[in-house]
Amino acid sequence: MLVTRNYERDKAILYAERYAFSQNPIFGNFRDIGGNCTNFVSQCVYAGSCKMNYTKTFGWYYISLEERAPAWTGVEFFYNFMTQNQGVGPYGKEATRDECEIGDVIQLGRENEGYYHTLIIVGFEDDDILVAAQTDDAFRRPLSTYKYDFVRFIKILGVRFEIPSSADCFLSVYDGVAIVESR
Fold it and tell me: Is the pLDDT of residue 176 over 60?
């Protein structure tokens, strides 16, 4: 039986603020092999959820550069996992801009290219959304400063666990010490 708990949005944002302009040493960097944006957003969502999904191929997890799910680093795979996950780990839905809050995710797209960039919402200012990202490192950058043809929003609805969990991975991940969670 799966147990659901809240996604801790404040922890996702604290993590984004700390690592938007640097690399957490416990995670690989994909900047030179396609971009690091989805990897960074996955780290932020993990900091706010403390639960990965270790399902081979279709899960959402990071163990090492060589051992990770496509959804951890791939824009489309991330979207598919978050919006279709029925198992453990964070889950969400495609949402409207008005439904979004801090800790939710934005993906940008271009004609003839599809969705190419993943960002995390860290605030709101006037009529704009403020985001954090890597590859083009940013924290509190207005969404209006990006060039894109279309956009989608992913609202993180919660986190599922197989058993109730009191474990909190946040400090070990935030401090760049280790990924700590039971599989």
Answer: yes
